């Protein structure tokens, strides 16, 4: 009476829970899923987990010899190995953990054989974390003060894993269980079963905008070209969806936060952009100083106009100055523009999306100010207002040096804005959040506004095309690309940041891409070669809506 009715959950001096212990005594189980939600690419391919078929073995049941004979016939695995595995008194194991990958036909034959203690299942496992894209991010262990009390210890620590942690987290696990009596016979009505996650709607999935196949192809090019630090951002011009984002160095578990900071997404980090920033000066001049556009400039002069420059380009028009990246022209243009309005440069940097974050930000349910890309940094133009009164500081700012900093994501979005006839939009990395049954919980729409007039955008398109047709980017002239390069000094002799940002194809632009090599000692021409290889790969790849 005491055991069965009164003390079932608190028996004896040790306060034993008899219900739990009895279940444990007759049950063996193995985890199939930790319950955390999936992060998918635009086509529904899992990116934060591997999902694969496997065979769970519960080797403690009766009919062991019969089971081993059937499995040997189906799999071809040597009988001695089956004998060895079944004699180790393991409660349960996966066949793939023993080093065997079966064909779909073999999985189906095992499933149809309905062998006691043998179950064909789908299981989840983590991919090689060092191959994860920075945009997807990582999960890790956190202290209790960081985590909400109703969540498990594993949580997102970077990327989308961190941004959407509240939607992906789960306490439940999915297991394969086998119930037997004391003689090893299946319990009537129980036997083998799968435990679900307790709710047909969970876990949730986060569907990104990324194309995982294209991401892998572009990553291979970046790696083959020997890019140590840097990467690329590829956007769809019309939707402003992130199709690929690569940050180097790759994630290394041994150097997440150390000197290399491998967990850091360089594409969301601000750096001096060099001459690409001349696009901002050109935009301000087009809309506010038409006479400046018709002026010729002595491009034999140095940046400060006090002597001869390293490159003697002669007398150039404003358009040719942009194509040849004449520093003196844009330093002089910036000085004249500031005389008109001392806030004009930051105003146009902001119009083009280079100051504020451009990743999707808004309200989702009761979460206000939710950001898809919380690691994205703001851009910057001036160190202080006093710099606007210093001619040398103005000159350096005009060519993207001094205190100018921009993220590669913002730079790619600026090119998309120009290609999209002056329409600026929020950049989306995630399309929607879905329930387990694939119905939609929430979708993300990109806000947009007219940043530039269509006339200004058309003029900028002409300038960017001229860079490739006969200017500094002529190495790309065989491809339908428009864009601008930039070389930014880092303060270390011979070490620079090398940029190229643009859009393609020119007619009906589909893609905008920014590529940057950071802290490198390279020939400047390498950035054009790299961009050409990447653009060719993108143009040859079909991205579906």
Question: What would the keywords be for this entry?
Answer:
545 residues; alpha+beta; 5-stranded antiparallel sheet; 23 strands
Offer a quick outline of the entry:
This protein has 17 helices and 23 strands. With 545 residues, it is of the alpha+beta class.
Written account of the structure:
This protein is α+β, with helices and mostly antiparallel strands and 545 residues long. The protein contains 17 helices and 23 strands. The protein has helices spanning 2-6, 18-26, 64-75, 79-86, 104-113, 159-163, 165-168, 212-224, 278-288, 290-293, 318-324, 327-340, 344-351, 391-398, 408-419, 454-470, 525-539; strands at 27-33, 38-40, 50-57, 93-94, 118-125, 139-141, 154-156, 174-179, 192-195, 205-208, 230-236, 242-248, 296-298, 315-317, 361-364, 367-371, 423-425, 430-434, 440-443, 448-450, 482-489, 496-504, 511-520. The chain has a five-stranded antiparallel beta sheet with strand order 12-11-23-22-21, sandwiched between helices. It has a four-stranded mixed beta sheet with strand order 2-10-18-19, with no helix packed on it. A hairpin with a 2-residue loop joins strand 15 and strand 16 (367-371). Helix 9 (278-288) packs across helix 16 (454-470). The longest helix has 17 residues, at 454-470. The termini are far apart. The relative contact order is 0.11. Mean pLDDT is 86; it is low at 143-153.
């Amino acid at each position: 009476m005491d055991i069965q009715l009164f003390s079932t959950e608190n028996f004896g001096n040790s306060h034993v829970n008899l219900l739990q212990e009895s279940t444990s005594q007759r049950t063996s189980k193995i985890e199939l899923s930790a319950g955390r939600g999936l992060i998918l690419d635009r086509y529904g391919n899992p990116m934060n987990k591997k999902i694969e078929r496997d065979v769970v073995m519960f080797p403690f049941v009766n009919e062991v010899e019969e089971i081993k004979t059937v499995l040997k016939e189906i799999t071809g695995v040597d009988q001695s190995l089956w004998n060895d595995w079944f004699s180790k008194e393991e409660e349960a194991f996966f066949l793939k953990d023993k080093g065997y990958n079966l064909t779909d036909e073999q999985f189906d034959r095992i499933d149809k054989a309905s062998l006691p203690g043998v179950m064909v299942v789908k299981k989840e496992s983590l991919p090689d974390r060092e191959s994860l894209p920075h945009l997807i991010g990582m999960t890790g262990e956190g202290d209790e003060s960081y985590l909400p009390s109703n969540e498990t210890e594993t949580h997102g620590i970077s990327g989308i894993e961190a941004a959407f942690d509240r939607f992906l987290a789960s306490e439940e696990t999915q297991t394969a269980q086998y119930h037997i009596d004391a003689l090893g016979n299946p319990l009537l009505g129980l036997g083998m079963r799968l435990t679900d996650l307790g709710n047909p709607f969970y876990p949730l999935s986060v569907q990104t905008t990324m194309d995982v196949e294209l991401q892998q192809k572009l990553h291979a090019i970046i790696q083959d070209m020997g890019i140590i630090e840097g990467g690329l951002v590829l956007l769809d011009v019309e939707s402003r969806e992130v199709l690929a984002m690569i940050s180097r160095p790759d994630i290394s578990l041994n150097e997440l936060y150390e000197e290399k900071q491998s967990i850091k997404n360089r594409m969301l980090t601000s750096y001096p952009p060099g001459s690409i920033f001349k696009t901002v000066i050109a935009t301000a001049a087009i809309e506010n100083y038409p006479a400046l556009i018709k002026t010729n400039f002595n491009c034999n002069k140095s940046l400060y106009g006090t002597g001869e420059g390293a490159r003697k380009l002669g007398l150039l028009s404003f358009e040719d100055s942009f194509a040849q990246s004449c520093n003196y022209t844009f330093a002089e243009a910036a000085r004249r523009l500031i005389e008109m309005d001392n806030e004009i440069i930051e105003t146009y940097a902001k119009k083009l999306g280079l100051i504020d974050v451009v990743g999707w930000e808004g309200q989702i349910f009761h979460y206000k100010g939710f950001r898809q890309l919380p690691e994205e940094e703001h851009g910057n133009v001036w160190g202080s207002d006093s710099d606007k009164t210093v001619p040398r500081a103005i000159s350096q700012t005009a060519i993207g040096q001094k205190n100018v900093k921009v993220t590669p994501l913002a730079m790619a979005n600026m090119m998309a804005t120009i290609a999209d006839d002056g329409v600026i939009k929020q950049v989306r990395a995630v399309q929607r959040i879905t329930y387990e049954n694939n119905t939609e919980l929430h979708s993300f729409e990109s806000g947009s506004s007219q940043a530039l007039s269509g006339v200004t955008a058309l003029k900028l398109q002409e300038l960017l095309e001229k860079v490739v047709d006969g200017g500094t980017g002529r190495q790309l002239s065989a491809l339908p690309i428009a864009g601008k390069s930039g070389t930014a000094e880092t303060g270390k002799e011979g070490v620079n940041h090398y940029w190229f940002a643009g859009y393609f194809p020119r007619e009906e632009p589909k893609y905008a891409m920014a590529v940057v090599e950071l802290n490198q000692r390279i020939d400047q021409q390498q950035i054009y070669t790299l961009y050409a290889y990447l653009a060719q790969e993108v143009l040859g790849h079909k991205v579906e809506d």
